[in-house]
Design the sequence.
């Protein structure tokens, strides 16, 4: 089996894995970081979004071996101890989640979106979420959360 | 202190773990020594099974066991039950409930039906073994259309079920309705289809069964909405006692009715774990979810509305064909019958109504409740026929509705469908929605659209629905000596936020700090009974169970306070977390009462230590009547057929609002699903092969963020119901009752100059374009 090494949430990790192992499965099954979720098998739902070298990526679209040497960040990296990241706080404040299953992917997508454009409009956010499904909220509070979270990230 | 009140928008406790990736969903759970299960599913819509060969699968490294349908049949277990509240046909004969085995042994009846389970040391081994189980099928003709299934000569699904008919049923006065229709100046009729959709919670279903070989108790962790009832059902099938199974739901990633039912997979998973003496975990992938989750809606309906020349409604007659799929689901025949009939006629006054349904079996996944379970169908039927009547007869659609809405003064009343409508002010809700929807500027906006070669439309759709689900609920409060409280309930949040809302009720009632209340739901060890989730029952049943338990705690607290105050119990009052004796300086906080409740010396003789730890069962008398009104403004591009829902306004009467933030979430989420049904979603089976065409999120069009409009919400809070102590009416399903007719009628308003009077849901760009250009 080939071996892989990468940095996940600031920690050097690695191991021997089957070549077909997806990055999401490496994160969930090998590293037991279960905040990254799997909601589909056709790369449509976005529950598995993580950051790879600072870019948001659906971790089901990438083999773990393709992340060799990369900096990977998952939802577990955002909070600073008990202090939530401003985007996480915004989702809570604006009721941007219900069942929570899509939330890690939403938050990771949102953080990347906000880093790229801190002054997001409603239209920017709605189009920016084209890769993320939520079945609970009707999206409105997610949009409000992301706009507010992006502002808070600047402060 | 973090005391909260009813109607505070308390931020959710559970969010802290959910936004941090610390939630625990079924696939996040693993047990030592765990095996992995996967299901072999039928590739045929209808076939006889001649035999199984599991030799190659068993020979694969890491494969522990393969259980085929034939193996399962030899074990002699029970069948998947169906508990429809409608059990008899109109003529008194029993409805048809065919046997459904957990694993099909001799015949499969839909694509995706489980025929075998493989159990292996790893997921990879299980996946490979699944492909090695050989099943010898002899394909049979299939029927996937609910109307065709009931026609003579259709392929027959079940021996002993003539003509594939499960149920024929009616409600209301057929003769009176016929007489009123005959006496009407106009009778307007419409045929419409309520499209087949699926709940599609983002988390797929799954189960982890952990057997304890010493105690004989198996703990079942399952992504479900209904743990008590399903434990009993699983136990009955496997011929176990209830207490041999503990059933727990961890965090559940959405349900919407799709996780209410008893499915075959958890039953076989529990059996496998007990038989092998090791934990077994099975989790569906998304493709399996589309094939094997229950679907919802699917009715072909004729609606007839009789009205006078001045527009006064006289009678409504609904004739519908529903479907069960291949087998009766857990609620089964109820959805297209009683579930759809109850709220017929919506908010309007009728002299007579009659509802008649037939529903049969098709070679498709079983249908069962999906958010609303019949009420959205009823709401769609009435609002579409009213709109058509207005268009056909030249009435203003707004005015025709205004004219026929049940006046407040007519309440309470029993509708012609037998629904007990106790309170509400439907006309005020209607006017409030209209006022919010900026009608004054519509003409200018429509003109602007026209300049851009777009067509603008508006529609308003009042709705009336009702609650449902298990009529009993239990709550238990257990105090620690330091005053911290633990609340356990049998109701179940799969995202609605009960961990916050129910603790909020307890905090408000007892004056307790929210931060000092912990919470358990969905654990058969935690409450003796529980009705789970369904029928917008969370606050109506769960909330009132908490309220009732709090009342009983206060009653005990008063006894403790009276003992200390040395006064009669009747002289003690309770307010804002304090017991006190008016006219004296005697006071005792809840915390002090809790502390005293553990001290035998501080208690009167008839109270024992721990006496403030109380569990109580709340029982609903009569179901509540949530109601409201939706309005939609849309823009249609006639060149492409694309619909843009631009504005959406909602006023709901849910009685008492416990937490507006969470109520808003329920409404907007429901509208999302309603919009999905109106313009995007449809579960499609190929008519010849019976294959599910919409088997992935690439084919099944779920609403995305840019499909949704900005919604403006408000509440009418002038009519809390007296049917329960909190005055709540239920909020969960309203969104998908109002949204489809509001959106569909708004699109038809936009297309009225093109002579388009009807388009079936989902109103895809193709359907809209065809209606403009090819009719």
Sequence:
């Amino acid at each position: 089996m080939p071996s892989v090494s990468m940095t996940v949430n600031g920690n050097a990790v690695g191991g021997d894995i089957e070549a077909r192992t997806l990055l999401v499965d490496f994160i969930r099954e090998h590293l037991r970081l279960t905040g990254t979720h799997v909601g589909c098998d056709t790369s449509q739902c976005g529950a598995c979004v993580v950051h790879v070298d600072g870019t948001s990526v659906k971790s089901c679209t990438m083999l773990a071996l393709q992340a060799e040497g990369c900096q990977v960040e998952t939802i577990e990296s955002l909070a600073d101890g008990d202090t939530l990241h401003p985007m996480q706080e915004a989702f809570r404040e604006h009721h941007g989640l219900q069942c929570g299953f899509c939330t890690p992917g939403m938050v990771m997508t949102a953080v990347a979106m906000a880093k790229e454009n801190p002054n997001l409009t409603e239209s920017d956010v709605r189009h920016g979420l084209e890769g993320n499904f939520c079945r609970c909220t009707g999206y409105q509070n997610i949009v409000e959360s992301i706009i507010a979270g992006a502002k808070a990230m600047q402060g | 202190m973090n005391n909260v009140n009813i109607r505070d928008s308390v931020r959710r406790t559970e969010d802290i773990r959910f936004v941090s990736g610390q939630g625990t969903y079924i696939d996040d759970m693993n047990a030592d020594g765990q095996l992995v299960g996967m299901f072999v599913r039928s590739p045929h819509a209808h076939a006889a099974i001649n035999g199984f060969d599991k030799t190659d699968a068993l020979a694969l490294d890491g494969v522990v066991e393969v259980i085929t349908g034939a193996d399962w049949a030899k074990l002699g277990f029970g069948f998947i039950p169906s508990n429809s509240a409608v059990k008899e046909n109109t003529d008194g004969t029993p409805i048809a409930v065919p046997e459904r085995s957990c694993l099909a042994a001799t015949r499969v009846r839909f694509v995706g039906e489980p025929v075998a389970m493989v159990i292996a040391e790893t997921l990879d081994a299980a996946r490979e073994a699944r492909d090695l189980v050989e099943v010898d099928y002899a394909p049979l003709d299939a029927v996937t259309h609910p109307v065709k299934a009931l026609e003579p000569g259709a392929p027959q699904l079940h021996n002993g079920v003539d003509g594939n008919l499960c149920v024929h049923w009616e409600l209301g006065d057929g003769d009176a309705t016929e007489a009123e229709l005959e006496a009407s100046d106009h009778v307007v009729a419409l045929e419409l289809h309520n499209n087949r959709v699926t709940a599609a919670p983002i988390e797929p279903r799954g189960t982890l069964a952990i057997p304890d070989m010493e105690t004989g108790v198996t703990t079942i962790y399952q992504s479900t909405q209904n743990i008590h009832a399903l434990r009993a059902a699983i136990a009955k099938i496997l011929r176990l006692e209830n207490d041999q199974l503990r059933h727990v739901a961890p965090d559940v990633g959405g349900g919407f009715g799709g996780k209410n039912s008893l499915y075959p997979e958890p039953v076989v998973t529990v059996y496998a774990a007990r038989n092998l003496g090791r934990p077994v975990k099975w989790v569906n992938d998304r493709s399996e979810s589309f094939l094997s989750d229950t679907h919802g809606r699917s009715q072909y309906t004729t609606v007839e509305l009789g009205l006078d020349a001045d527009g006064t409604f006289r009678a409504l007659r609904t004739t519908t064909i529903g479907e069960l799929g291949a087998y009766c689901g857990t609620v089964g025949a109820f959805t297209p019958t009683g579930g759809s009939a109850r709220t017929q006629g919506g908010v309007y006054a009728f002299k007579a109504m009659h509802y008649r349904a037939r529903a049969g079996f098709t070679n498709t996944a079983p249908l069962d409740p999906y958010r609303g379970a019949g009420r959205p169908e009823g709401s769609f039927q009435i609002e579409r026929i009213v709109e058509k009547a207005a268009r056909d007869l030249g009435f203003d659609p707004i005015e025709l509705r205004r004219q026929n809405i049940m006046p407040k003064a007519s309440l309470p009343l029993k509708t012609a469908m037998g629904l007990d409508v106790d309170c509400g002010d439907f006309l005020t809700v209607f006017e409030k929605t209209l006022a919010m929807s900026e009608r004054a500027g519509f003409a200018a906006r429509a003109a602007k659209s026209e300049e851009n070669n777009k067509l603008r439309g508006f529609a308003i759709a009042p709705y009336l629905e009702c609650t449902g689900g298990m009529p009993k609920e239990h709550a238990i409060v257990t105090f620690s000596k330091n005053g911290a409280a633990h609340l356990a309930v049998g109701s179940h949040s799969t995202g609605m936020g009960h961990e916050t809302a129910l603790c909020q009720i307890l905090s408000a009632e007892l004056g307790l700090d929210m931060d000092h209340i912990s919470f358990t739901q969905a654990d058969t060890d935690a409450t003796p009974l529980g009705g789970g989730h369904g029928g917008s029952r969370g606050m109506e049943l769960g909330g009132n169970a908490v309220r009732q338990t709090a009342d009983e705690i206060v009653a005990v607290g008063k006894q403790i306070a009276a003992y200390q105050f040395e006064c009669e119990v009747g002289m003690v009052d309770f307010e804002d977390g304090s017991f006190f004796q008016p006219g004296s300086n005697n006071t005792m906080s809840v915390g002090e009462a809790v502390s005293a409740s553990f001290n035998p010396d501080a208690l009167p003789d008839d109270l024992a230590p721990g006496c403030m730890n109380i569990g109580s069962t709340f029982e609903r008398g009569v179901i509540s009547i949530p109601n409201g009104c939706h309005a939609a403004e849309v823009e249609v591009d006639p060149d492409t057929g694309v619909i843009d829902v631009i504005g959406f306004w909602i006023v709901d009467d849910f009685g008492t609002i416990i937490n507006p933030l969470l109520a808003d979430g329920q409404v907007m989420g429901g509208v999302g699903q309603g919009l999905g049904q109106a313009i995007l979603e449809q579960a499609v089976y190929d008519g010849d092969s019976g294959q599910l065409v919409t088997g992935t999120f690439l084919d099944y069009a779920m609403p995305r963020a840019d499909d949704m409009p900005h919604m403006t919400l408000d509440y009418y809070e002038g009519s809390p119901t007296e049917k329960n102590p909190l005055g709540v009416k239920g909020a969960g399903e309203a969104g998908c009752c109002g949204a489809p007719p509001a959106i569909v009628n708004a699109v038809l308003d936009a297309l009225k100059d093109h002579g388009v009077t009807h388009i079936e849901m989902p109103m895809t760009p193709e359907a809209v374009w065809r209606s403009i250009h090819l009719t």
Notes: Chain A touches chain B through 54 residues (CB under 8 Å). The mean pLDDT of chain A is 97.
